[in-house]
Amino acid sequence: MQVGVIVGGVLGAGAFYKTAAVTNLKLPWTILALVTYGGFGLCLPLIWVTAALLIRRRPDVADEVKRLVHWLGLALLIGLGAFMIYADVTPWLGIMWRMDGETSE
User: Fold this and answer.
1) How buried is residue 74: exposed, middle or buried, by Cβ count under 10 Å (0-12/13-18/19+)?
2) Cα–Cα nearest to 32, from 13, 46, 8
3) Predicted confidence (pLDDT) per residue in 66-75, tens digit
4) What is the rounded distance in angstroms from the CA atom of residue 77 to the CA atom of residue 74?
5) Are 30 and 87 in contact (CB under 8 A)?
6) C-beta of residue 2 within 8 angstroms of C-beta of residue 76
7) What is the DSSP letter of 104?
8) What is the pLDDT of residue 63?
């Protein structure tokens, strides 16, 4: 699911990027980051699944640690989903948040 979220987020960013190129819209940094470096985001699920498999295979690891790795994977999924929604939906709505908390249109 993590890979699907990343792929969907990059495809959504690509759609806005193409639309912005035609209509001369301002590109937010999140879209530029996803279009340029979105493929590197696939390293996050790869790292998590490698760690999860290594930990699950070891019988000497406590069950609490195994549960923690499971919940960390779920937290990674939620974090990726939240970032992808923020990155892909807010430009379509015309919301451009700046770091000082003000919005610009």
Assistant:
1) exposed
2) 13
3) 999 999 999 9
4) 5
5) yes
6) yes
7) E
8) 92
